[in-house]
Amino acid sequence: MKKCLIIAGMIIILIALLFYGCGFFSYIPELSSRLARYHNHGEISLFVDGEQVTLDQCPITMGKFDFPLETSKIKNNSFRFKTGTYGTNEFHFEVLGVNVDFGIFNTNWWHVLYYDIELHLMTNGDGTIDSAILRQTCQVGKTGTKYESESSVTFDGNEKRIQIMAGP
Fold it and tell me: Is the distance from CB of 102 to CB of 151 less than 8 angstroms?
C-alpha cells in the first residue's frame, strides 16, 4: 500500500514537471487569444474628395504578394481574418484603381489585432485620383499597445500604390 502511494506521488510530480516544463502555466493566461475566432480584424473608412464611401464586397488579401495566406471580402467597411502570423501581417486591397497595402509586424501569431484604417483619396478636375493619405491605428488586444502611422503620396505615373506598416 505504501509502495502504491509513493508511485502515485511520483507520477503526480512527473506530470506537474511536464506541464511546467512545457510552459503550460504560461499558456493558460493567453488561452483566449490563442483560441480567438479572428486574429486580424478592423474597420476601413474611405473618403473620396471628403465624402465617405462605403466599401462592400471589395476583396482583401492577407499575406505577401507572391504568397497569400487568406482572402476575404470587406463587408460594410469591416474585414476579418482567422489567421495571424509571426512576423509581418500584410493586407492588400484595391479601390478605385489604387493599390492599398497596410499591416503590422507582429511578435506572436496568436495576438488579436484590431485595425482602424482611414484612406483619403483626392481627385483632380477630371475625376482622376492624384493623391492619397492613409492613416492606420493598430491595437494589440482590447486594451493593449496602440501603434499609429500615416503615409501620404502624390501619384505621377501609371502605378497607384500607397503603403503603410506599423509595429514595434
Answer: no
